[in-house]
Amino acid sequence: QTQTKSRTLSTDQHKSNLSLNSYCILKRSNMTYKLFQRRFPFAFHLSGIQTSRLARNQRILLYSPCHSYDVNRNATSRSFILPYHQQVRSSSPKLFSTSGNRPIVSLEHFKKHNDKLAQDVSTILHKVDLGSMTAKDIANAKSLIHVLSNLRTFQGAHLAEEILERLISEGADGGNSQVQLESKLYNTIVDAYGKSGEGSGVDKAEALVERMKERSRVLCEDLGNDEKVDFIARPDLFSYNSLLNAWSHSKRGDAVTKAENIVAFLESSSTDVDVKPNSITYNIMMNTYANQVGEYGYAQKAEDILLHMTSLQKDGYESIHPDTTSFNIVLKAWKNSGGGVESAKRAEEILRLMVKLYIDGHYDLKPDNVSFRTVIHAYMNHGENGKFSSEIVDRIQGIGELVLNGDIDFIENPQIVSEVISEILKCLAKSGVPDAGERAKNLFDKMNQARHTKGPLNVENEGGTYVNTMIALLSDPKTAHLGREMMQDMLEGKSSVLPTTYAMNRILHFYCQKQNFAAAQDLYQTMVRLAKTQGFERTRPDVATYNMMANLCFQSSEERSCHLALSVLDQMEEDYKSGLLSNLSGFVYNIVIHKLTKSKVQTSQGSAHDVLMRMIYHYDNGDLEQEPETVLFNMALSSIMNQSVENKTEKAFEVLQLMHERANSGKSISYPDTRTYSHVLAILAKNMKLEMSKRIFDVIQMMEDEEDKRRVFLYDNIVFETALRGLSDDQYGDGVLADEVLKKMFVLHRNGHKLVNPNSGCINLAIKAQLSSNSPMSRYKIMFNAHSYLMNIVSMYEKSESRVLPTRVGFNTVLAQWERKTHTKSVVMAEEIYFTMNRLLISGAVDVGPNSFTNTHMMRIFARDRKVKSTLKAVNFFKSIEDATLDTVTYNCMLRILAGSRINDKVEMANDILLDMECREVADVASYNAMLSACTASDSKNKQRLLDFAVETFTRLVEYTSPDELSFVLIIKAWKKLSDNKGEIERNLRLLYKDACDRGLNGTMLKDEFKENEHIWDENYA
User: Fold this and answer.
1) SS3 assignment for 130-189
2) Residue 687: pLDDT band by 50, 70, 90 thresholds?
3) Quick check: 270 pLDDT over 70?
4) CA 11 from centroid of its chain's CA atoms
5) SS3 sequence of 250-286
6) Which of left, alpha, beta for 847 (phi over 0: left; psi -120 to 50: alpha)?
7) What pLDDT, on the 0 to 100 scale, is given for residue 773?
8) Coil/strand/helix, residue 82
9) CA 191/CA 200 separation, integer angstroms
10) CA 663, 664, 670: angle at the middle one, nearest 5?
11) 508 and 487 in contact (C-beta within 8 Å)?
């Protein structure tokens, strides 16, 4: 679209443009190119992929006495400056060549000529002695002022001002009579400051005008009546208009006041004819008011100035005559005002006044495209959620009638009618009124009728109008079939408008906005089919097509959207490879990778890595201008993390190494960041294998090396915690490496890195890593080392060498190991840990006090050999536990220990504990089962008492909670073992089995228990 819309420059225009002393800033973005093409009519671009690739890493400095300014100061908006003035052209005649109708700049002179600019600036400012400038030096200095000013940047204007001050010093202090300064040098810099876009630019412009005025006053006083007075540089009307324009575009709160003061000064300057305000002055002042969006009063002020201009024109002021531009500015002011629909109505009244004045013979007030579209937009600004009321739509349609009634002659520019009608059709498509489609159809028919009428009206039925009518019809469900018919006629060649990529893209954009995935997909496939099968190149998808389709796939939740996104990417690459597409779109690659990463389908997530590799390949070959950013690498790693493949660790490590290799070789500026390393470490940690611990440590070391090279801090707690989580794997962990990682955290924290803060969680993981089975040491040595590691950390804390302790989780981790392994020192070691936890708790440490898991570990360690003495020690420990910390887990552990012990009165002890639990309401089915187990496992000779305990326990179990299958198995065992009355046993077994069946608990365990009593099982089963 940029190529088709760019204006063809004639040879004379080329010569005129080449004579300008200017530099052109170009960026690689097409949108930025279009912006600069509009702003600078002499703008040119670098064509060819190799040209832009070679220029990608160029960094050009513009030097000033106090600072150096890096034009390429950030990677996201890199730009470069190309010389474009007579000196370079004359010294390098081959610098400018032509390809078609577009000027092409050879890159071989790029760096040399920018260095020449910097050298020329430095020579003028620093190397030429005061008073020794030659006529050539002075001419070069003036040329540099124009060159730097035409950059339209604050830095360029600042350097131009310094050169101007150097010329002033050359004449005033150096006594060089050859220096003759004209007002236009000041004006050029003032204009550059005003158009620089910097907030302080307007202040610099105002200060420069004041200095010019003061210097001219002093020189006039010194020279008196000397004829040289006429050659003194003094502010003229262009100076004040440039300053006024700077305030007009300023966003400062005092912009309006400053502009009004300038106009008041010009109007009051009665002695100086050169600074009387003209039409440009008043137009700029009106534009200042128009730029104040949302202020109702400023629109009225702009209109008052227009009336004032009309009055001055009638009074004979030849330099003041309001024209179409003046009226358009007032229309803009009403459009931007905060007066609601009434403001739009006032703008329409002024537009109709323009039409009337034009009909009456005021041909310099002829409404143009801007006039009509400004009023249309004024109405469109007052819709709600993009929808418009019927009144607003009627008003906008009335403007269309105003264009089509034939009162205005558009022979010179027949496209105005179709452009205005297209704008109205766009409004109808967005309006949401019930009859939008019907209105659009009627308006389109009227325009076609006007096209064939004879008279002053000349209308071209452009494709844009046709497409806008089609979209308006499609937006209305009542007329959607008419829109589809128009589209079919266009595709089959039955309409006056042929299908083009631009037209198809407009319709595709409509479908994308409506989230109509099916219609958009059909239209896209139609474009591809027409281009492939019928050779209709005018409908071939372009970059905009692929961008829209990729974005639609990203927003769609349909299952096939991932597949379509990949097919869009494949088709784009195929077109580029065939030479049918001028460039690949980095946006498509970005969107597709985003889409695949977020997909829940494993195969789609796996494709994200492949798409990234394709993007890297095209970028390295110069086919793609947008470099894969770090976030895309991170997304690919995220997709690898979510895949269920065996080689995910290898793929993740390859991605990380690829990023390092590309960054170190200078191919890329997409360096790994903290998230990159976190993803890789997470993948390694979740897929621990042999030697994987060494890889985790290698990643940590790579981060350290990267920090030393780039001087960028990458570490944070997430990185270290992820690494420690992998190093603490039960089977493949590594305690030595985990300790190294933890020590590194402490070192970084002591060095002031606030993002790294060793916490209790990290220490817990390091302690767990000491118990990994991957160590070559014996299991007992591993346990003793982990115990010593834990105690050393506590010792460092108590000596104030560290502020961090493990939580009770870390202590319980070591206790659990002492519980699992039988060792003569297990009890001693466990007691040391337990007493340490209590000591730290008393000293004020947080989250280190024993909990239920600590208590259960301790009791099991005490009672491991099931001896009476050991069990009693566990019972005594249980009794020493504070009531507030007793919970179901601790109670049940004690009950199980008693059930498996050899103490004679264990049933009575267990019953007391169970009664205590019932009082506290913490008993569960496991508690009762433990009591039943104690009854059946007891060696007491008083079977009846044991049976009574069992029956009573089961009755309470049924009363307080619901029994499970094990409960029935245990009570049945109690009857069979403790009762001598066979009839009673059989009767109770029948009742228990029936109850279990009614509860749905007749599982395998229960049936196995009835193998000796199959007749009961068969009877109940029947």
Assistant:
1) CCCCCHHHHHHHHHHHHHHHCCCCHHHHHHHHHHHHHHHHHHHCCCCCCCCCCHHHHHHH
2) confident
3) no
4) 45
5) CCCCCHHHHHHHHHHHHHHCCCCHHHCCCHHHHHHHH
6) left
7) 67
8) strand
9) 13
10) 10
11) no
In angstroms, the Cα distances linking 642 to 597, 639, 715 are 9, 5, 24
* Model confidence at 316: pLDDT above 70: yes
Q: Identity (one letter) of the amino acid at 873? A: K
Backbone Cα Rg of the chain = 43
Is 473 in contact with 482 (CB distance < 8 Å)? yes
The answer on pLDDT for 862 being more than 80 is yes
Q: Chain-centre distance of CA 327, in angstroms?
A: 42
Cα separation, 468 vs 408, whole angstroms: 23
Amino acid at the residue 529: R
Distance CA 528, CA 526 (A): 5
Amino acid identity at 911: N
Buried b (16+ CB within 10 A) or exposed e, 848-875: bbbbbbbbbbbbbbbbbeeeeebbebbb
Per residue in 607-619, pLDDT (tens digit) is 888 999 999 999 9
- In angstroms, the CA 277 to CA 287 distance is 15
Distance of CA 46 to the CA centre of its chain: 29
pLDDT higher than 70, residue 169: yes
Residue 739 identity (one-letter amino acid): D
Average pLDDT, integer, range 452-459: 51
- CA end-to-end distance (rounded Å), the chain: 84
Structure confidence at residue 231 (pLDDT): 59
Rounded to an integer, what distance in angstroms lies between the CA atom of residue 414 and that of residue 974?
106
Pair of tokens at residue 47: 């064509």
Q: Shortest CA distance to 27 belongs to which of 16, 39, 19, 17?
A: 39
Closest CA to 447 of 492, 439, 480: 439
**Nearest CA among 357, 432, 367, 361 for reference residue 399:** 367
What are the φ/ψ torsions at residue 99 (nearest 5 degrees)? Answer: -135, 105
- Cα distances (Å, whole numbers) of residue 909 to 871, 890, 912, 927, 950: 12, 15, 5, 13, 14
Q: Burial code of 48-85, b = ≥16 C-beta within 10 A, e = fewer?
A: ebebbbebeebebebbbeeeebebbeeeeebbbbbbbb
Predicted pLDDT at 175: 86
Residues in the chain: 1022
Kindly report the average pLDDT of the chain as a whole number.
80
